[in-house]
Amino acid sequence: MSTYAIYDSVLEKIKKKGRFSSQARLLDIGSGKGELIRQVKEKWDFHTSACDYTDKLMEVEGQKVDIVDLNTDPLPYADHTFDIVTCTEVIEHLENFRRLLREIYRVLKSQGLVILSTPNLLNIKSRIRFFSFGFWNLFGPLPFDRIQREDTDGHISPVHFFYIVHGLHEAGFSHIEVSTDKYQRSSIFALSLFYIPIKFLGAASFFKEQWKYRTIQKENLPYVKLVNSLDLMLGRTVIATGLKP
After folding, report:
1. What are the extents of the domains in the chain?
2. Would you tell me how many other CB atoms lie within 10 Å of the CB of residue 79?
3. What tens-digit pLDDT sequence spans the chain (245 residues)?
4. Residue 83 to residue 61: CA distance in whole angstroms
5. Which CATH number, 3.30.428.10, 1.10.10.10, 3.40.50.150, 3.30.1700.10, labels domain 4-243?
6. Which GO molecular function annotations are given, in alphabetical order (predicted)?
7. How far apart are CA 126 and CA 12, in angstroms?
8. Pair type for strands 65-67 and 47-52
9. Hey, which residues does 84 pair with through a beta bridge?
10. In the chain, what's the furthest Cα-to-Cα distance?
């Protein structure tokens, strides 16, 4: 579920990443009640489109919602339609997020902007939970008798930020950046206990990957270095952006 901190981050990315005309077209995937669209409309005179698994949730008056099953259906839009595509707290609900990234690339215009968010698996509290219990924060054991796709029961795909970056790159995006929506205060104390061991063991693993397995290259190095950054050890939600060349 998206939060106001996530919405604020998305709005800031739109403001920072491009000079869009007043007639720019924005698509919000997984639009829910339409809160992000409402906030966008308060700031810009964009033409907005929305899609979700249902149109029963939308609360923005006059906003049409196109119904789509993101696991099986292509986005119901022509190529090169949108200037901006937002997709907040959606990919963790999908069976194949890379397929959606390719669809987003298809419907974006040249120089179009994509903004994604998903729970941050590398938050220190999430790392501790995985170490002790084997499950990331917000990705607990799934019930076998039901899956409610709209809540955390529907978090079926924990996606590490690096694989979002890789998926965006493979889809064709450039200028890919990663940030977080906010720091979790409750993580600061935990990080103070584990910071030195993480940095020491992380450096050893980095050296092994670089020189033994040779998985680290010039192109992926900046993103590998983010793994143990303060943003990703303290941040609650990953925000990823990319531009279509």
Report:
1. 4-243
2. 9
3. 789 999 999 999 999 987 898 889 999 999 999 999 999 999 999 999 999 999 999 999 999 999 999 999 999 999 999 999 999 999 999 999 999 999 999 999 999 999 999 999 999 999 999 999 999 999 999 888 776 655 556 899 999 999 999 999 999 999 999 999 999 999 999 999 999 999 999 999 999 999 999 999 999 999 999 999 999 999 999 999 999 99
4. 23
5. 3.40.50.150
6. S-adenosylmethionine-dependent methyltransferase activity
7. 26
8. parallel
9. 26, 113
10. 58
Q: In three state form, how does the secondary structure of the chain look?
A: CCCHHHHHHHHHHHHHHCCCCCCCEEEEECCCCCHHHHHHHHHCCCEEEEEECCCCCCCCCCCCEEECCCCCCCCCCCCCCEEEEEEECCHHHCCCHHHHHHHHHHHEEEEEEEEEEEECCCCHHHHHHHHHHCCCCCCCCCCCCCCCCCCHHHCCCCCCHHHHHHHHHHHCCEEEEEEECCECHHHHHHHHHHHHHHHHHHHHHHHHHHHHHCCCCCCCHHHHCCCCCHHHHHECEEEEEEECC
Q: Which of 29, 157, 32, 153 lies closest to 101 in space, CA to CA? A: 29
Look at the chain and count its residues: 245
What is the reported pTM? 0.95
How is residue 93 written in tokens? 């609900």
